[in-house]
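We modelled each protein-ligand pair independently. The example shown here corresponds to the pyridoxal-5'-phosphate entry; the chain sequence is given first, followed by the ligand as SMILES.
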Amino acid sequence: MTGFNTRAIHAGQDPDPATGAVIPPLHLTTTYKQDGVGGLRGGYEYSRSANPTRDTLQTALASLEQGARGMTFASGLAAEDTLLRTVCRPGDSVVLGGDAYGGTYRLISRVLEPWGVTHSPVDLNDLDAVRAAVAPENVRVIWCETPSNPLLNVSDIAVLAEIAQASGTLLVVDNTFASPYLQQPLTLGADVVVHSTTKYLGGHSDVVGGALVVADADLGERLAYHQNAMGAVNGPFDAWLVLRSLKTLGVRMDRHSANAGRIAEWLLAHPAVGDVLYPGLPQHRNHDIAAKQMSGFGGMVSFRLKGGEEAALRVCERASLFTLAESLGGVESLIEHPHRMTHASAAGSPLEVPADLVRLSVGIEDVDDLLADLDQALA
Ligand SMILES: Cc1ncc(COP(=O)(O)O)c(C=O)c1O
């Protein structure tokens, strides 16, 4: 197999046979001419079912995650919904990391629960608790987000995969924070990888999307059926934007990781800052697991303010090069207050996040400019 960056640029992306165009064409079409009834060219019939630009992205993502099949969707949550409604039935249950993304928790607890799918939050680092949680017959899925949003906890994918296999459940890993450049969960035994391609895979804060990549071709077949039957697909232009961005994923992630590492160390020494949550710091509670399963530590850094919620809100409002905004994973740096913004939907639940927490999505600007901005915001 060729290297990651070579596959990011070339997998599924041969020059167009019709014209030689080096970049895969953007197929903005809903339907395809048939050569006689049922005479499809290349299997293309209708763009909800299949579109060449989406197919190219799906092939590239499957290659980067080393999976059997990739599927892309209108958003990360559309991908999650399609997955959960394919593998769960009323009466089934999902074991969910205790600090999953608030929107994932909302989907499972508020949308799927009324349809009879229950859940139990568990600390995925407490392996006895995980074994106990998967013991009931009706558990179908262990849902693991690593590193997690926004607390940057890291779970041991290989160990969770063993537990999942022994109990007959599927291990799903949300790989949004790491991206396949830094971590490939399927190679560690996970069954399904989930992405919000809105984040590092898109990388430029200009496209919302989601993806699933699976290890098993039969599960891939069932999911592809539901992708078409449920219809939450991404449009061709959205797929094309992510494809273009994949080509620079490796160089972007290297720079995100280098900048975030510098900023995490700087924050650690700041008198106004309490805990700094970054898996690359030797003092991070899961640093050893992160070092074992990731090839870099990514661009996300969270930290807690000694001055509490008021101080956290002030930093968010005073930052200027760090733009106050939700989302993450773009080339530009963002800052946000998870308790009131991205994770507001977890308020009052076991997944509620601390009010003194600030989350940074560290971009690829010059790190000295980013440090100067944080310095004035924390002054
Ligand atoms: C870790 C993680 N998973 C899934 C999602 C959902 O993705 P989307 O917003 O593309 O629906 C997000 C969004 O922030 C996320 O951070």
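The chain has two domains: 4-246, 249-378.
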